[in-house]
């Protein structure tokens, strides 16, 4: 399973509304999990079994709790039995398809 998620607090004390400290706490949980992962400016992606992935998302959400009175969580999952290494493989296939298009346009 691949999952992309975003978790952020609201109702905290930061006057500029920044949530980077809370997000850092969540990302630390993900990285400490040992599951394959990647963080971008908007989402963190991770790969593992259903129980592993959702266990990490739950722990990451709990890590954000001290930073505000509410938590927003967005999750998108790609559940495909029998596949591993898709965090990188899906992107590799996309890049290969783009290379093929560039080559055919020349």
Run of helices and strands: EHEEHEH
Query: What is the CATH class name?
Result: Alpha Beta
Query: Major sheet, described briefly?
Result: 4 strands, antiparallel
User: Reading side by side through the largest sheet, how are the strands ordered?
Assistant: 2-3-1-4
The general outline is: globular
Q: How many β strands by DSSP?
A: 4
Classify the fold: give the CATH topology: Alpha-Beta Plaits
Counting structural domains, the number is 1
User: Treating each run of at least 4 consecutive H or I residues as one helix, how many helices?
Assistant: 3
Query: Which whole number gives the mean pLDDT?
Result: 93
Which class do the helix and strand fractions yield? Answer: alpha+beta
**What's the architecture in CATH terms?**
2-Layer Sandwich
Helix fraction? 40-55%
Strand content: 15-25%
Radius of gyration: 17 Å
Low-confidence stretches: none
Ends distance: 37 Å
Fold and architecture overview:
By secondary structure, the protein is of the alpha+beta class. The protein has one domain (2-105): Alpha-Beta Plaits, CATH 3.30.70. The protein is 46% helix and 24% strand. The chain contains three helices and four strands. The protein has helices at residues 20-33, 50-64, 86-105, and strands spanning 2-10, 37-39, 44-47, 70-78. Strands 2-3-1-4 form a four-stranded antiparallel β-sheet, covered by helices on one side. It is globular. The termini are far apart.
